[in-house]
Amino acid sequence: MKLNAVLFLALACSAANGAVVLPKILGSHMVLQRGQPIHIWGWADAGEQVSVELNNATQTSAAGPLGHWSVYLPAEDAGGPYKLVVKGANSITLDDVMLGDVWFASGQSNMEMPLRGFIGNAVIRNSEEEIRNATNPNLRFFRTPTRSSPFPMNDFEAEWTACTPETAALFSAVGYFFGRAIAQDQKVTVGLIDSTWGGTPIEAWTSMDALGSDAALMPVFAEWGKMTDMQEDYSRMLAAEKRADDEAKKAGKPAPVHSWHPRPESWEPAGLYNGMIAAAVNFRIKGVIWYQGESNSVLARANLYEREFPAMIQDWRTKWREGTFPFLFVQIANYHSSPAESYNTIREAQRRTLQVANTAMAVTIDIGDVNNVHPANKQEVGARLALAARALAYHENVQYQGPMYRETSVEGSSIRVLFDHAQGLLCRDGSPPGFEIAGSDGKFQPASARIEGQTVLLTSPDVSSPKFVRYGWANAPVLDLFNDIGLPASPFTSEEYIPKV
After folding, report:
1. pLDDT score at 249
2. Within 13 Å and on the Cβ side, how many CA atoms surround 250?
């Protein structure tokens, strides 16, 4: 029997026996979002009266015809530990409940990558020392299992845990470093929800409501159709790999290395939203941190990302019903990917998504590993996301962004690029590399660049009438343009539309 059917039956049986049931995301050691009405919900017999008490506040509710009940307790300041008591036909007591800030961490493998690294192919910088020092009473973890579903699920098989070396080792490294920085800055307990799955596309994380309401996203379903048509070949491939593994083991040889391939269920449109997001949207959060994009970089899919990413952000905000909560994301790093992929197209789509309200982007073009899609320096990724959170979520007056393209100005045969967040604009080696310019024909040529204040002036002997500028337009560009706090400039193109790949 599939897990979703088991969960449904368990909840139904519990309610039928008169027992009040809570979703697993409401548990001992959890963090509830401070400063917002506290939402507590669950299941019971239809019509059953349920009371909820926390820190001397009490609310009651009656379960509806399908057994659902829900209450909102008054907003609370940071504090704890508290007991949360739920009473109906039975009584449930949750211990060690804290009021603090809850951040939802999601995406694919670079967000999923645990503090111990991925065994065999990627490590976290200084991981052994980081794990050894990971005991932190101000951090709590909730890690959802990887799961795809054809319909929205209402519960997880997971639990809240304290931050210890054992739990941190298996938790998102980016999430851990981000949460550690926020807990230290805000002096509150931080709850981190890790909902990640490596090698997954953005459409799997977006609800069917959002995908189906935008005709421009219909190619998503065409691509999914191609994958399902290959399902039999996928099954045969897995069987062949297992035979090769068994033969190697029998012969006493090392296991063969197989090429990476996605699990079809993890690419199903809306599948991961249904299985790994939907059960969390009733839980109040401070905001989201997101790291994903590599799986959408193949040429057949990359251009759709400019539409998909804002759609997913709006979708999540709609489902959580908390307004425009902060959505902080990582721009994918420099990597010598296949010519069949366009990382630059994804980066530009991510940059343009900053037009969406209350978003911020951590640029990582300077800290990637051109030979490994999983860079080791997750500490800096977490730190840059935390800077953005301090500015957007906590309204601190801090610089959080590297130089960001604003506009161009043609000056004869030269063209000037104006940046935001460009105080102390500098290049450590003199003339910044990576700039190209083009005329109205759109044929880009390498450009000589000179920094002038918070601008860069560009010229090329091959372009007499420049119109367009682009910077870092490659999968793994070598770049060297920063502001005075050491944050890198984002790659960009000034073209009105992202060029088709």
Report:
1. 87
2. 6
Is 49 contained in some domain? no
User: 286 lies in a domain?
Assistant: no
For residues 323 and 235, the model is more confident at 323
Indicate the pLDDT class of residue 232, thresholds 50, 70 and 90.
low
CB 151 within 8 A of CB 278: no
Fill in the amino acid letter for 340.
A
**In the prediction, which pLDDT does 241 show?**
83
| Distance of alpha carbon 98 from alpha carbon 296, whole angstroms | 38
Q: Residue 483 sits in a domain of what CATH number?
A: 2.60.40
Domain that holds residue 485: 404-493
Asked whether 40 and 52 are in contact (CB, 8 A), the reply is yes
What's the number of domains the chain is made of? 1
Number of C-beta neighbours around residue 5 at 10 A: 9
Residue 369 lies in a domain: no
Cβ atoms within 10 Å, residue 234? 15
- Smallest CA-to-CA distance from 32 within 87, 88, 78 is with 78
DSSP 324: S
Q: Which residue has the tokens 């296949």?
A: 338
Angle between helix axes 378-392 and 173-186 (nearest 10 degrees) is 40
Residue 113 located in a structural domain: no
Contact indicator for 198, 174 with CB cutoff of 8 Å: no
pLDDT in tens, 417-426: 999 999 999 9
**CA dist list (Å): 1 to 7, 149, 215, 234, 347:** 10, 14, 36, 23, 41
